[in-house]
């Protein structure tokens, strides 16, 4: 079977936003750059990261089992688009390939080091998702909603004026030519400001032509003889139709309908027909704008003018042919991706910088209780989808992506992957809390990834007769728990079975078997606080504390210390008890023998001294090959048992004396 890489990779397309596209089985430089990682970072005050073309779209695979602290995953997603509307900041985040089973809440969303729920102002987290089938049926149905965002790259929202009350100056910008625009005003402050306005003396106004950078202040005033150069301009003045002289804190104007700014409204300045910037200097606050009304004592922070810009009049009803590219409008690139829109007071403005309307934004961190929906092979219901923390379901999800087929097509999928034991293995995972909660954010080869990671779940990924599958690394009993009773070998081989001269034994170097401390890194994850990396040291009780360290990184998927400890015990027990490996050949096997099964080898040891004796050893099969000349070759690792035929490795994992620190 061919291999492929998942997750998908962002690439640039007609849509303008990062989209999914198949990629080669390799990692890009962006994948390995830690600055692009979406795992929790200890630098909670770092600036928000932005997605760019070529970034990998991650897969969020997680499920909180019962209470807080039993699963789920923290992510720090990258921004796809940033917007602002009605005085609230909005971030659009491409969180995961696939459909998240749950929608995060503001209380499970951090902005910098504080919960979004504790910030002032309205806040929300909204999910957008459409399936491949939905967008194939209607390619014009953009899955991204909200006020600020759209699948069209030219739909943007901008702050063209932020008149800050306590700044020395501020800038205002023209709506650019050639765009449809829709504007809205919001007032930010506290207390009573219904007679408080920002005043800007005309003598401090500077007008800059954006095209040339020239100061056009003199020409601008000359084109307005009815407006004396000393005129004082104001902001937050309510004007006619309001009961109060000035606008109250929290006021948000109704947005006016889209207006085609296809010609510049300020063409009356000879020689300057382009966009321009207005810089208002020497501004001040007047708490009694109307002298006939009592002064107010509230705080006017700023007025914000926001504009939504687009090259089409109504982005929600796009034309079938894009007027810019002349290509058919097609939003299918956005299918099968979960987008989250985070809205709230997400930006800090620095009033100490003259004319600054550029925000300073901190990193968004989101706790995902339920990751993407996958076919629940672990429950024996592959036609039902839901969140899962079972490694067996993640493996099947990968193969479904590879085959691009309907989850209900079990028969077809079964030709490539063994599914008969997946429920039993899922029960084994539950019994020992071997749960996968993580973000797959790098491009991976399916076969390599499953082969490597499965060992941390005490399983092995195997291939037999052209069929892939998972098998437990330790024998399990009828309750799918590690078997610490007498074992019965799958097969027994004697000298009469083994082809003469084919038997070989290779001992493990003593340095590879000496006692060590196993250090396992894992992610401490709880919905109460941002997750962070933790480490646990496991050793046999008889091992010195200063023994050499062996380190294992399970931070990509392990969120429970029980999981980390169990794997460390398995590693230490195998290292202590398994002394060698063997290989031999037998006539072609007529009964199936697969990797991980336990066999017994009984041989006569013949010596020149005449002290011949029978040797009986137990092994775990690692590989079986069948040749066309009627010979089967078996590779196996030493899997010792005690006098009661109980596995020494299994018994130590379950009953051994270990120290955990």
Distance between the termini: 44 Å
Derived from helix and strand composition plus strand pairing, the structural class reads mainly beta
Largest sheet: 6 strands, mixed
List the total number of helices: 9
**How large is the share of residues in beta strands?**
25-35%
Q: What is the average per-residue confidence, as pLDDT, rounded to a whole number?
A: 86
Shape descriptor: elongated
- The value of Rg in angstroms is 33 Å
Number of strands: 40
Helix fraction bin: 10-25%
> For the largest beta sheet, what order do the strands appear in spatially?
31-37-38-39-36-32
Low-confidence stretches: 1-32, 262-266, 405-411
């Amino acid at each position: 079977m061919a291999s492929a890489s998942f997750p998908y990779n962002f690439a640039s397309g007609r849509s303008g936003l990062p989209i999914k596209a198949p990629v080669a089985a390799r990692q890009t430089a962006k994948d390995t750059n830690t600055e692009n990682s979406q795992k929790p970072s200890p630098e909670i005050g770092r600036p928000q990261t932005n997605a760019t073309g070529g970034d990998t779209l991650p897969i969020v695979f997680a499920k909180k089992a019962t209470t807080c602290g039993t699963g789920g995953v923290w992510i720090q997603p990258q921004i796809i688009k940033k917007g602002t509307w009605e005085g609230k900041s909005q971030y659009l985040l491409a969180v995961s390939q696939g459909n998240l089973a749950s929608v995060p809440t503001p209380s499970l969303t951090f902005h910098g080091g504080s919960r979004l729920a504790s910030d002032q102002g309205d806040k929300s987290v909204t999910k957008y998702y459409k399936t491949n089938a939905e967008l194939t049926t209607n390619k014009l149905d953009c899955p991204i909603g909200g006020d600020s965002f759209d699948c069209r790259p030219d739909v943007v929202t901008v702050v063209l004026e932020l008149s800050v009350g306590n700044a020395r100056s501020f800038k205002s910008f023209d709506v650019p030519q050639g765009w449809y625009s829709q504007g809205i005003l919001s007032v930010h402050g506290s207390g009573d400001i219904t007679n408080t306005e920002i005043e800007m003396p005309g003598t401090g106004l500077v007008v800059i032509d954006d095209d040339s950078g020239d100061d056009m202040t003199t020409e601008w005033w000359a084109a307005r003889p009815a407006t004396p150069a000393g005129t004082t301009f104001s902001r937050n003045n309510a004007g006619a139709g309001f009961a109060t002289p000035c606008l109250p804190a929290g006021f948000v104007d109704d947005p006016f309908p889209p207006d085609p700014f296809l010609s510049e409204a300020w063409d009356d300045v000879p020689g300057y027909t382009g966009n321009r910037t207005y810089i208002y200097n020497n501004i001040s606050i007047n708490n009694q704008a109307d002298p006939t009304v009592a002064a107010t004592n509230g705080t006017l922070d700023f007025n914000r003018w926001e504009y939504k810009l687009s090259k089409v009049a109504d982005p929600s009803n796009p034309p079938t042919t894009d007027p810019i590219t002349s290509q058919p409008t097609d939003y299918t690139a956005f299918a099968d991706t979960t987008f989250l829109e985070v809205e709230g007071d997400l930006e800090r403005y620095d009033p100490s910088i003259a004319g600054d309307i550029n925000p300073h934004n901190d990193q968004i961190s989101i706790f995902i209780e339920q990751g993407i929906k996958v076919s629940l092979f672990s429950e024996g219901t592959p036609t039902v989808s839901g969140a899962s923390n079972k490694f067996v379901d993640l493996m099947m999800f990968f193969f479904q992506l590879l085959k691009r087929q309907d989850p209900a097509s079990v028969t077809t999928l079964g030709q490539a992957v063994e599914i008969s034991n997946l429920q039993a293995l899922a029960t084994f995972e539950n019994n020992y809390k071997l749960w996968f909660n993580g973000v797959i954010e790098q491009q991976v080869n399916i076969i390599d990834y499953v082969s490597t990671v499965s060992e941390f779940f005490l399983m092995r990924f195997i291939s037999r007769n052209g069929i892939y599958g998972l098998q437990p690394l330790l024998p399990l009993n009828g309750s799918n728990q590690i078997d610490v009773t007498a074992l019965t070998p799958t097969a027994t081989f004697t000298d009469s079975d083994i082809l003469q001269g084919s038997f070989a034994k290779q001992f493990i170097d003593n340095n590879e078997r000496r006692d060590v401390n196993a250090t396992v890194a894992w992610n401490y994850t709880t919905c109460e606080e941002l997750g962070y990396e933790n480490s646990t040291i496991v050793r046999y009780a008889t091992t010195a504390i200063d023994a050499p360290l062996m380190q294992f990184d399970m931070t990509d998927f392990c969120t429970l210390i029980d999981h980390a400890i169990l794997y460390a015990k398995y590693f230490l027990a195998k290292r202590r008890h398994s002394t060698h490996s063997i290989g031999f050949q037998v006539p072609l096997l007529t009964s199936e023998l697969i990797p991980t099964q336990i066999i017994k080898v009984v041989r006569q040891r013949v010596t020149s001294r005449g002290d011949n004796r029978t040797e009986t050893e137990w092994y775990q099969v690692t590989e079986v090959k069948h040749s066309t000349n009627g010979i089967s070759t078996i590779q196996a690792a030493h899997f010792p048992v005690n006098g009661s035929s109980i596995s020494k490795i299994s018994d130590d994992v379950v009953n051994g004396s270990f120290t955990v620190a």
